[in-house]
Amino acid sequence: MVYTLVVAGLRTKMLLSAQMVSKTFKQDGLLGRSDSVKALDRVSFDLARGQSLGVVGESGSGKSTLLRTILKLTPHDSGTLTFDGMDIAEIRSADIRSYRRRVQPVFQDPYSTFNPRFSIGSSIALALEVNDIVPRSQAFGAASELLIDVGLSPNLANSLPHQLSGGQRQRASIARALAVGPELLLLDEPTSALDMSIQAQVLNLFKTLQEKHNFTIVFVTHDLALVSFMCDRIIVMKSGAIVEEGETKKVIADPQADYTRMLIAAVPEISDTTTP
């Protein structure tokens, strides 16, 4: 159900809203039989500007399909998915560039963000040029400033992706996403390939940058501990459907679904007051 927040008499539209969104994939089975897999099953949620939403579940729960649907990479079969009041399914090719500027992903593997033959600074500068953020003559300098913003030395602007550590590459991919001034960041397991100390640094970076730039976050992960640290709200998915949703603190403290209780039990310790 689409709703609005009422703040001091003002009605605020949700930035992202899903109503009964479903997606079924068909695949060939044994003896030529066609099998169907329901990746999204009547998914509904609302997300206000500036909030962080955690999407949690095991592999095959539908998390990544939901993210790809929001990115307009995988079309949904039924239901309505809207961004800032626009039906995502109805966005045409002429408007895709603007939409992709407003909605940016950060993936688990930062290699997918960069051309291995281009320096980090050149890749970020290209994003600035293509989207008319700054003139070409200023783009590389602006890219260096973005690296500083995510805690990297501007000297790394001349480095190739393989010359950076995993944590540095992920920070650089965050800089690339922020270059175009997105309103919504889609984080797909952005720290799962990092060791624990670097993971904590990157998560704290997201929180600091969100406070600075006021973007909205959808954080897809299998790790409830990370969601308890990062997110205001949570949806728990199983077999394509949402089995529980609500404020993260309340869901963690008093889960209603057996599946949520199972996920929580699998985490040694969940704390929403400490750094992961």
Q: What does the model show?
A:
This protein is an alpha/beta fold. It is 34% helix and 28% strand. The chain has 9 helices and 12 strands. It has helices at 63-70, 93-102, 120-130, 136-149, 166-178, 196-213, 224-230, 248-253, 258-265, and strands at residues 4-7, 10-13, 16-28, 34-47, 52-56, 78-83, 86-87, 103-106, 184-188, 216-221, 233-238, 241-247. The strands form 3 sheets. A 6-stranded mixed beta sheet has the order 8-9-10-5-11-12, with helices on both faces. Strand 3 and strand 4 (34-47) form a beta hairpin. The longest helix is centred in the last third of the chain and has 18 residues, at 196-213. The chain is globular.
What is the terminal separation in angstroms?
33 Å
What do the pLDDT scores average to? 88
Summing up helix and strand content along with how strands pair, one would put the structural category as alpha/beta
Strand order of the largest sheet: 8-9-10-5-11-12
Gyration radius, to the nearest Å? 19 Å
Could you tell me the number of beta strands?
12
Q: What is the tally of helical segments?
A: 9
